[in-house]
Structure formats: C-alpha cells, structure tokens
Amino acid sequence: MKQLFFSLLLSFIICNVTSQVTLVKGPYLQIGTQTSMVVRWETNVASNSRVTYGTSSLALTSTVNAAASVTSHSILITGLSAFTKYYYSVGNSTAVIQQGADNYFVTSPVPGTAGNYRFWVTGDCGNGSTNQTNCKNQYLAYTGTTTTNGWLLLGDNAYSSGTNSEFDTKFFDYYETDIMKKAVLWPAPGNHDYNNAASTATTVPYYSIFSTPVSGQAGGVASGNPAYYSYDYGNIHFISLDSYGTVGGNKMYDTLGAQAVWLKADLAANTKRWTVAYWHHPPYTMGSHNSDFEFFDLGEVRSKFIRILETRKVDLILCGHSHDYERSKLMKGHYGLESSFNASNHNLSTQSGVYDGTTNSCPYLKDSINAKNGTVYVVSGSAGQLGSTQSQFPHNAMHYSSATYGGSLILDIQNNRLDAKWLCADGVVRDKFTIYKDVNSVKIYTVTPTASTNISASWPGTYVWSNAATTNSISVTTSVNTTYWVKDPNNCVADTFKFVVNIPTGIEAISKGNNNTIAIYPNPNNGTFTIDIKSNEAHTIEVFDITSKLIYKGQLQTGSNLLQLKTATGMYYYSIKKDKQIVNTGKIIIE
Asked: What backbone phi and psi angles, to 5 degrees, belong to 139?
C-alpha cells in the first residue's frame, strides 16, 4: 500500500507540474539542412524535452527526447530526407504542449539543386507596432499556401535594448502563432540586439535565443562564431554577418579581422549559382541614417568592406538599420561619399530591373564568368520601425527609395532567375526587380535529318518562339540547316539555337548532286522499288540507316533496276556513285 501511495503521489505531482508548463517562446526552427532540423522553444517552468514528428500531421511516428530538465529547449532531429515536409509537436515525456497542421518544416534540398524557393526578409521588425503586425499579415496573405523556405532577419529584432523580455513581447509574441512555426529562422544581429553597447558575441540574449551553424553544418565554411555564418539552400549560398559586434577588437569592416578573413575563405569555396549576403548596417542610405556622416559602421563598411563581396561576385546585399526602403540598380565600385556616385561609371545597367514591359525595365543580366558582374543593394529596415529621412534623401546610388510605407522583402529564386518584391504594410508591392543569370545563350546542334531534338529557353518565365510556340521547350526535327530563336514578350532576353544537319558517312547532302538521269520510284515504298539509270555507264548504290550503318551495296545497270530491301520501316539514305564519285544522293522511305 505504501508503494502504491507514493506511486500515485508521484503521478499527481508530475501531472500537476505538466499542467503548468506553457510556452514562453516558440516553437521556432533553426539550422535547417537537407537531413536535419533544430526545433527550439522556451517554457515557463523546467521540464524534459520531446519532439515527435512525421510526414503526416495525423501520424507523428518518430520521437526525439532530451532528459535534462530545462526551460530553454533545443532538439536536433537527424536522419531526415531532403526537401521533405515534416509535421511536429513539442512537449515533454508526459504531455504535448503544441501540435497541429501548422506545425511543420521543410528540409533543405540537396545542395546545388535548382528549384523554386521563397524567402521572407524582415529588417528592424521587433518594435511591437501596428506596422509590424500589418507587415506580417500582408506577407501571410501574399504567400498563401506557398512554402516559406527561409526567414532572414536583418537585425534590430527586439527594441530597444534586445533584452530577453523584449524578445518575448516584441518578437515572439508577434510571430510564434503562425509564420514562426513553419519557416526556418536565419538571424543577423543589429545594434539594438546589442543594447547599443560595444559588445562581444555571446554576451547578450540574442546569442542564447538563436542557434546558428557555426560548424558549417548547413554548408559553407565553418565560422566558429555564432555572430556570423553561411549556409546553402539549393543553388543559393547565404551569408549572415555581424556589422556591430566585435571579435578580437575588430569590427566587420576591419579587413584583416577574423570575420573578414573567414568571409574571404567562405566566398572562395562557394560554388553556388547565387550568393546573397546580409547584415544590419547599410553602406548606402539617406533614410533615418546617413551613410556619409555615420562613418563608423556605415561609411567604413562602404569604403573598406563591400569590395570583398563585389570582387567575389556577390549578387545581392540586404541590410536594415535605416527605417525605410532603398534599392540600387546593378552597380559596382562606388566606395566614396554620395556626391562621388556617378551612374555612368557605377551602374552596370541602364535598366530599372522591374521587368514589367515599361521603358528601360528589363531585368539585370549577369553571368557566371564575367568578373564585372555587379551587385544590387537593398535597405529594407521598415518591417517594424518606420523613421524619418535625411535632407539628402534619396541617396544618389539608390534607384528607388521610400520612407512613407513600412514593408518587408520577398525573395523568390527559381533556377537562374531571382525576383525581389517590396511588399508594403498595406498590401501593395511598390518596388520589384529581377536578375537573370546565364541567359541570351547561343547553342549549336549537329543533327541527323530524322533526329528529334528538345531545346529549352535558358530562363524561367514566358516565351515567344520563332515557330509561334509559347512553352519553355519545343522539339525540333529538320533535314536542312536552320535556326530557331526564343525571346520573352518584353524583348529583354533571347536564346538562339542553330541546327547543322549531318548526313551519314558517304552521303554529302540530300539535295546535292541530284542527277535527273536517275529516278527512284515508288518512294515511299514497302521495301521494293525501281531505280532507272539512263546513263550508258554502270553505277554503284549504297544504302545507309540513320546511324550511318551500311545496310546494302550493289551494282546498277543501264535501264531499270528492281531492288528489294528487307529491313524495318523508316528513313534510309542512298548514295549512287560512278567511278567512285558520288553522282546522286537522297532518301528512301520504307513504310
């Protein structure tokens, strides 16, 4: 009886404690790879940890446990399949705290795999404002059922001091009921996350709240420091940097400091088609901050640091800090004050990039070889905070600028096409741009007359073909040299496909050398046909299949020659010679 009493008492205590366990943060997703995911959450009281998961929300068949009693829970799930959707629940050994159809994650694709991927980018979001709520809600409405493959944080994630309680009330409370449960978070710190104080990594709540792939477990070179890191997603390489903290007394812009040295090594090792870098302090802005007057953190980034990324062909740089939206054209080589910017020297394209059919709106074009590729710079720091502007606003280097509306950035990357949209808090997309890589291709195909060749446009989009087709791919069969082309409806990009017909060995050309003194009939035929030779001299005939294999060779006499080919139906080629010189070629069709 005594043993039974204590057993019942223990069960009562466990149930009572379990009933008091509630969520304080999350759940949220970290360090997603093709085979693993970190699920984190925080509870009001300590307990052990459990995540159950499966590919159906109705069948969570696998479990990972952690025995330690903690309030900050972190579970690493391994052995997952690439680019697969998993549902999950969080809790402990006695109860599930949260589960449901919206509790899911999608693992990363195999590195290098081209796909159709979407990322949400928020800068300066965590201020607890109506603007913050509206920006999130408009993104959720815009994306609908489309998976958010990653969520990029550009810093200043919890105002105004980055305290633990501010992260609770101004970050987690705003996002944890929807987007946070199903989008992997990839953070970067801002000055407010450091409480605006000179600080080294790991000494502020930001570093205990977020997990980052310091060991290179998500791709890229291991940084060994939670403040900065890189990761791969399909054919995209992302780099998250710390523009405020110090490492060994060095800031990000100190080109011989640990962060810059690591960055150079990481970029040198990168082989992905797209490279996107992001951090907090922008090199170009005239919004709530002035990149000319604020020399440290902003000016030093511009004058010393960004050339590291430009010379290594980084495609897109995203920053926050200034509480507005500013966007450059494809540019390179501007490292001075605003007054030194010269569009003819620093912009590599005269196009706007909006790609909507209006004048000079074509996408920015880049290739994988040309070192002078250029970079697009975006300041998107109004997903929560919304501030004032400088007297010089807009910055001369920025093609589009707005400080009137709050908003977030949507980044869609499909194979060799990148589309970015600035979605405002009222649901209006007020700026967008497109970058294409490795388009305007010219390809030459050597074919046989009966071969069917599939050709495809080099970009995802819409198409107008020279034969009036509108699909991405067409099939071509030709017996003569010809050229096909495909373009987009806005006449911005075009591919050319040249076909050179290769006649099998022994036949110079189907139409070359035809001699009216020689006649073949019927043609098409069933394998039996007549060849009339009106010349007084003997001839030799050779017949080939489409692989150039000789299937028949014989003599032709003056007059009518009855031939019978016992072979399969199809197209064949003949060559008639006199004194070893070809005098007639053509094709025989056997039906």
From this structure: -65, -45
